[in-house]
Amino acid sequence: MGVLMNISVIGAGYVGLVNAACFAKLGHQVICVDVDKEKVDKINQSISPIYEKDLEEIIKKYKKNIYATTSYKEAVEKSDITFICVGTPSKKNGDIDLLFVDQATKEIAIYLKNKKSFHSVVVKSTVVPGTTQNHVLPLLEEITQKKAGVDFGVGMNPEFLREGAAVYDFLHPDRIVYGYYDDHTKKLLSLLYSDFSCPIVETSLTVAEMIKYASNCFLATKISFINEIGNLCKRLGIDSYEVAEGIGLDDRIGRAFLDSGIGWGGSCFGKDVNALIAFAKEIKEPCNIIQSVVQVNEQQPLRLISVLKKHIPLLKGKIIGVLGLSFKPNTDDIRDSRSIILVKNLFEENAQVKVYDPKAMNHFKKLFSDIIYCDNAKDVLDADAVIIATAWDEFKKLDYKGKIVIDGRRLLEAKKTAKIYEGVCW
Ligand code: UGA
């Protein structure tokens, strides 16, 4: 059993709350800080303000170990280590916006100034390499008038949690990475994670930050790569999934993240890939591979339209059904969803669009008001052709009899009943 600690977590969003709840589950005492009073109240009533598998159950079960507040004072005074887990959104040029990181850092610093005992501040938010060392640390020193490494500690501990599997990923990590500025923070973090049996990477602040960016960029690269191979496979009339099996057996390559289709979406890959491109530009280093990764990803949903046009050359006035709007199944998140690009392009072809998604329709309605939103998946099938854009389980059970189905997500079940079935890369 590792050493139990008093922890504070700034930001009760998806990363902050999952980390806070999981630390509580491990027996630590956790204080969550958020500026949103409504969120704070919900957490204190053991209600999760966001949906994430198993999260609410943990908050309920370990309610003795976790509470939320809007007070930074309380959080800093009553804990030994503070994790900054606020959002780092993209600016228009791709740069990350450090507004929330700055706000959190300044607030922490105000109370750190008068704190007698040693306290470590650890950045968990995804920030471009160099940010903790060159931005957060000097800001803390300036406001506290104290010396980092002597009077307080600094660390960087990136997260590798997938939406929808975040609790599982926290509890069963492939590796834990943390960077440290001072030995006290190194010791604290090593004690905090001492119960985990996975490899632990102890490194510098900037290496830890780069590991996070390089991980997400590499995963996005794998997907764009297999999509490019998949497009070639399609032309050859062969199945890209057979190719993925064949190359994935090479340990150096691995089978994971080689599912071809219509590309990656979500709140992280696009943001991180673009942030690294913007960062590279700033320091005048070429970023050719990563730039192409984005280009392939933007083009990939359009493949659905070219496959569809083989069967319906003129889409004008035709009704096209789209199954799935979220960026992946089991979430209502539509950020960077490929369905957005798809629907925009169907509009450009003057097609009529009808859609269904079990969770994401309300979000989609804010972007597109003049499409038909169906009450169930079956109603979408009443169209000239159907496109599968997200691999929700319930789409596997539909009867596609008599339909033209163009599949962007490898729902082979549809092939069994459809009149015409074509995959985008198979
Ligand atoms: C991703 C990473 O997987 C996490 O490790 C990371 O912590 C997280 O971003 C983050 O930075 O916070 P997430 O955005 O939840 O997690 O989504 P993934 O499950 O990785 O899927 C991303 C997209 O890639 C989805 O649109 C999915 O459909 C697509 N994908 C995934 C493929 O097209 N092919 C694949 O083989 C795998």
Written account of the structure:
With 426 residues, the protein is an alpha/beta fold. The chain has two domains: 6-203, Rossmann fold, CATH 3.40.50.720; 252-423, NAD(P)-binding Rossmann-like Domain (Rossmann fold, 3-Layer(aba) Sandwich), CATH 3.40.50.720. 42% of the residues lie in helices and 14% in strands. It has helices at residues 14-25, 37-44, 55-61, 72-77, 99-112, 131-144, 166-171, 183-192, 205-236, 240-248, 269-282, 288-299, 302-311, 338-348, 361-367, 377-380, 413-417; strands at residues 6-10, 29-33, 66-69, 81-84, 120-123, 153-156, 176-180, 200-203, 319-323, 352-356, 372-373, 385-388, 404-407, 420-423. Helix 14 links the parallel strand 9 and strand 10. It is elongated and about 75 Å long. Uridine-5'-diphosphate-glucuronic acid (UGA) is lined by residues 159-163, 216, 219, 223, 257-259, 261, 263-266, 268-269, 327-328.
